[in-house]
Amino acid sequence: MQISKGVEWAAHAAVMMIALPEGRGLKAEALARYHDVPTAYMAKQLQALSKAGIAQSSRGAHGGYRLAKPATGISLWDITAAIEGHAPAFRCTEIRQNGPCGLKRKDCRNPCQIASAFAVAERAFRDSLKTVTLADLAAQVLQNARPEQLSDVGNWLESETMPLSDTS
User: How many whole angstroms separate alpha carbon 138 and alpha carbon 13?
Assistant: First the structure.
């Protein structure tokens, strides 16, 4: 299963937003600069998080993004679904009906074994992502980060965050 860069970028941005003080946000440009990724692409991911109710956006000069709900209530599956959608990664095209020995449509009432195996794997994948919250990830980051690294991030956040207004 291939996960897009957008999911990675959105997850990193969301974890960063955990540390925002109440009433403050980060512009898409700042998050893009922090992660050294294209601003337009980061903005697209943040808009998807906002549309999914994961992030909250504010417009205007004092606009920016912050989490819309507690980090304990946002899973990696929530972020993945916001960016990539809820459609299954494997889509059966009923290839078993093709070719000189293809099955007749009436003989394909049940999913084929291949589609069934992929469906089981995808459920396990999604269920696994649903067990990991942003709060879990942030705790791991804090546990594994060097103190000077945390200080640098804190200083960066202090310089880049701004009070939010005109919440939309």
Answer: 12
3-class state of residue 137 by DSSP: helix
- Give me 162's structure tokens: 């701004």
SS3 content of the chain, % helix, strand, coil (to 5): 55, 10, 35
pTM of the model: 0.87
User: Which residue bears the tokens 């003080």?
Assistant: 21
Name 131's Cβ contacts closer than 8 Å, sequence gap at least 6. 75
Residue 11's nearest CA partner among 140, 119, 123 is 140
**Any idea which residue has 């957008």 for tokens?**
6
CB within 8 A of 48, min separation 6: which ones? 6, 10, 82, 83
Position 162 pLDDT exceeds 80 = no
